[in-house]
Design brief:
5-stranded mixed beta sheet, globular
Amino acid sequence: MKNCTSPTKAQNRIFKLSKIAFARLNILCAIFLITFFASNKSFSQPLKPGQTVVTSFDPVNPLYNSVKVMDLRNKPPFVVGGNFWAPATFAGADWNQSKMGNVFGITLDDQNPPNIYVSRSTVYCGTPDTLVGLIYKIDRLAWSVTNYIVKNPVAGPPLINVNSIPNTGPGLGNLCFDNWHQQIFTTNHEDGKIYRIKTVGAVGNVLSVYDPFTIDAGTNSGFVARGERVWGIGVFGTSSTDVRVYYSRWVNDRFIAAANSPNEIWSVALDNTGDYVSGSARLEITMPVLSTQVYSNPVSDIEFSQKGTMLIGERTMFGDMGPCVADGYWAHQSRILEFPRTNLGFYNSNVFNFHRVGISASPWNGFNSAGGVDYDYGIADSLLNTYSQCDSMIAGTGDYLYNKPLFGLIYGVQFSARNAAGSPNKSHYIDLNGIAGTGDKNSPGDIDVYRRDSCSSPVTGDLYIKDCTGDVGIEPDVNCSNIMWASPDIWVCKSNSSCTVQENPEYNTPTSGLHNYVRVTVRNKSTTTTSSGGVLSLQWSKASTALSWGKPWDGSVTTPVDPMGGLIGTQYIPAIAPNGSTILTFTWDPPNPANYLSNFNGDKGHFCLLARIETSAIAPYGMTTAETTDLFANVKNNKKIAWKNVEVYDRYSDSGIAFYVGNSGPAAIKKFEFADPTGGSLFNYWNVSIKLENTLYQKWVAGGKQGFNITELSDSTIEVTGIGSYITNLNLPANSIFKMNIKTVRNFNSDSVSNPDYNIDVIQHDVSLNRIDGGNRFNLKPNCVLNLKLFIEGFYYSGKMVPDTVSVTLRNSTSPFAVVDSAKSLLDASGNGTFNFKNASNGVGYYIDVKHRNAVETWSRTPQHFTSSLMNYDFTTSANKAYGNNMILTGGVYSIFSGDVNQDQVIDAADLSQVENDAIIGFIGYVNTDVNGDDFVDANDLSIVDNNSSSGI
């Protein structure tokens, strides 16, 4: 016989609940003037777009309204630090716990106005009650409550064509409405099954049951085991023949925190009758673990934007049902995440946006989701009866959302701008029980916003992104010489400072905390201010001259390397002044270059970016010309699309840099042009060669080796010799990919050091169709060259120096003087050496840090900078050329001190001992203890070290 609780435990529980009630009464009396009560009155029924249904729980008050409607229209302005908002809140006469019990899940049907459905649950805390209802229907007009699905108190198996679901106590997970087939789906925490329900008369009727994991009869009572347990559920479709049900698999939580057993989101397809398609189940998302843990908490709510972005809310669970204790201890470990949908209808577990919930201070870090989440309008105005800017806001339930001075803690609903990622500066905080200051941990439940139809309103004004500097938003673009992949309005910054020029994107390890930041300028060419709205999306791909739309930008291409592209993010566009602009910033973490090593020579900056302004939620998404697979034509014909090749070919490279060319369509004749985009004299100053992969070379051979201003070298390599160079007549098969390798060597005989950077475009033409497919732009930067003059004390005698190698490190001019670049070179007999730096920039101050195998490390006195990629520095003319005057006069010139044999930056007895030992042995050769460079360790070396040691160098 199974006992629910002993008399002692029951008495303790009553005592605990009494203390909670007494504490709440005192708080209520103390802050009566600053509380806001939920009214039980009906109000201006029925439900209106922008109003919101929310569930919650109170452990001591049976008359507490477990279902409420909040009027989240007519939003107040955002304020810095967050806004405590008390919107009008309403409830029907029977919307309380004594009539409905603990309810969590919510869904709205597509009636106008909608009926509301809520489901019984025990995920808050407490023991199961004796009520019959399992899913309640709240009438769309009268707001009366009826039992829609009742509880069969006997454990399974499930029955078909009945008005009940077997459930002995755990309750249901969540609900969703399928508007394509006019039916409801719900998840059952007792048997791990999904129930499909349609209305028959006034109640629900179970039409079919789906068991997504281990098939079983479902006859065990109580919560089904983790791994079989399903909770959050949602439906998304693009047509009646393309509908899937998405459901979460509860594997892990705070109580069962097992590594390598992640929570998941799966889906199953529906046929044209709305029933499950056998064998169509697939894993959609493996949930990322919490940043400081080995687990995540289960997904309790799944919603979708109009474009199919999946919005999920996690709820922290510690066991199946938590005890109703005053302070609760199983919160603050759950998130709200968005997973963008690819053009092919898939989701990527590693591509998501994190929406902070609640305070961001340690230890919670914005992980305060209570499990309910939904999209909302940016504008929902009861005075003007309008609703627009669909999906621009996110509403979510949460614990410890806000700490308002004079008001206290806020537990309930957070309502934030979607593009602000939960920032308090763009958030409103609402206390669910109307009593600010009470710690209502684990009491918030689910939330559903009443959203109708396609609510993307047209954006006034005239938005565009420049394809080139001279672009003024004409369609098709006639001002950019057919170079559509060099938008100045898209650029990468390696820090989140306000950089204004393109920087080389870098790969950063996930634990580094470092990112790249992509900035996109959106312009308004109209003489009137644009309305806020419209979405700016940003996607990346591995660079190729044969890019098409939407592959590989949609993340669906996984060869030759996975991934070859994907979504970086989406943002809503604010209002823009007449002839004005705004800059939107995206965080970007390029893939690990090691993944591309064999195909791209380890290049980590060789990517393309595509920015698209969408002002409608349906095709053609506000574009003047509907998009096709021809990316080049899409960009040229639509001012709302811009393309940027962001690979930076940094300086001279022995191996060159590889990139892809090919054919994304049917078999065709291709031509590859190599051009200076300025029409200038690039080829006078740089030697440019192109190596074709062997199969591509054979295509060129088969076409008769046709070309212009090119010379064939050995080993499938072609030298580009002048303006207008190209190779042509390459017959490339359908959907083929080939590799080229570009190598450039600066011609110092014809090019002075002051020569500026150059660009070279590789342009792919479709000869058959007489059009441009696309291209790549390579930035050719000369090395920054340091001409250094330096003498080393022990190596300098008789007016000249024994040549030896030194290393020079360039350091930032401010603490902590981080290393920027380093190089090695041989100092000749006159002390001269040339050092080439790949990562330095003109006009930036750097300390010159010199190291030699047995000399004291020495820095320049002040930071120095490159001008036109050149810097000259002479340490030998004065002691004050070194930081701290740390030099010695030797034979009329200044030298750096010799004798730091062990390189600990001081010359002392340890160095002296090493030299003395080697001198006794008579060491010969290139060793650190040879302080004067004669390849022999003897008394002369010992004397130098002894003198400098005695002087305290």
